[in-house]
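Notes continue from the previous slide.

Worked example: a multi-chain complex. Inputs as given:
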Amino acid sequence: MNDHITIFVNGIRIRIYRGMKVKHALIARDYLLYAAALEGRLAVYDDSGFRVGLEGALHDGARITTREVA
Amino acid sequence: MNRFVRLSALITLAFLLICSPFPSHASPAVSLTILHVNDLHGYILPFEDKTLDPDSLSGGAAYLAQIIERERFKNPEGTLLLAAGDMFQGTPISNIFRGRPVIEIMNLLRFEAMAIGNHEFDWGRDALAELIATANFPFLSANITDTQGRPIQGTRPYVILTRKNVRIAIIGVTTTETAYTTKPANVSDLVFSHPEKILPDVISEVRSQGAGLVIILSHLGFDADRELAAKVRGIDVIVGGHSHTAVTRPVNVGETLVVQAGYYGLYLGVLELKYDTSTGKAVGYGRDSGLRRVSAAPGSLFDEDVSRIVEKYHRQIKAEYSRIVGSTSVDLTKSPDRESNIGNLICDSMIEATGANIAFQNSGGIRSDISKGDITLEEAFDLLPFDNTLVVMDLTGHQILQLLEQNAGGEQKILQVAGLKVEYDLSRPPGARVLRVLVAEDPLRDTQVYRVVTNDFLAVGGDRFDTFTQGTNIVYGDPLRDVFIHYLSKHSPVRPEIDGRIIFLNP
């Protein structure tokens, strides 16, 4: 079994270990994204437009986007 | 129309209804309400979520309970309350008491069933068995068995309940990721089958027992739930968890409805299902179906009985935080740019817990100093406040050398280490600053594969140590803080020294 999965964060492809979560994908993409999400300045959404938590599990090929909180 | 005519019309209509060949009790539509939560992760106290409410607290079991009772009151004979897994692990108030506060609350709220989530295995099988024994509701998973094909002790694949004369099968499924995202010792004797392979037979079984409605209580994640709905026939509803997705409106996949209620008790999921007794099918859902946000803002209603349970444990946790978990004969002092004795101690605990050759811990994750003397649980939390988990991987000597070279860069706080000694000459150019590396007294070899333990922050390239993302044979371990506390309890009084693991020449 492959150790890695592919995730798209704001359209950018990244690879993280299988079993890792939304927060890991943000850290891998850019730690500042994660810090902003922790502080509540950004929220994370899946490709259906539903909000997901930072500890949420990720599926291989998942696409997540960050949006500024109004 | 005068009053007489209107009265005559009403009498005629009433007569026609009374004489109707379709008596009212034969109305085929039954209204069922599925209330659901998932991934509570022990969040029974209200907490701050600025993305939802910048001014007030959100969540909290007492506030959630109030909304559950309000929704249940609307359809008392036709309501089910379900949990889609990962209910216990995640907060001090739940972790310290091994999920007991959550089970007490779930019993009080009369949950009907719960899917087993991957994090239900975090505290080992004995702790899980105790939770199962304490619960007044069944723990479900149809795809976890022992090697003989039997369910885990105390669990079952499904339960069939009756509401308004409708027999409702609730079948649990658990992510197969559990096999490799959980500490191996906790799951090594279990088989996690792919849900799409086992569910057709289980669905046939429950249908043969008269189940008219089939609900999959899933801890697979929203994407996997949608795939499951597309692949497996005969599922009416999937109530999901694992991906922490706030599914604000039910999603149709073929004839299946997929729902999920976010995480941490921020929402209660409400699915008002229309079930046709003549066809035995769910035919739609009420427009009020969706998520109810749980707010703990001043003035919000809460359940007093649940509040008492939360307060009981909250009071105890303050005493628990002052519990002594170990002691040290020397002051434990962190350093962002040099070897530190507390860094050495933490890394030593990581090696002991995993048997790895080498340990790396980011200095930025070590947040406080500890004075000589007793060490309390609160000090351990202050020292390691992040909920990091150990990750063990294979790296080559060449990759380790890359990490160590970057460690001399001064661009970020350094990595603390165990299992190796490294000597730098900072007068040399970048890329050539590592003079010597010894692993267990032997020189580091470029092509040799070493077992390396780090934390999940570094494993995804945190602090720009990207080489950690190139590991292979990944195994997840226990939470770092738990590992450290266990080490303290075993080896106290500890006396870690700065023993020359990281030496900088010509700084």
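Summary box: Residues 304-321 of chain B form the longest helix (18 residues). The interface with chain A takes residues 39, 41, 48-51, 54, 90, 175, 177, 180-181, 221-224, 242-248, 251, 262-264, 391, 456-457, 459-463, 469, 471-474, 476 of chain B (CB under 8 Å).
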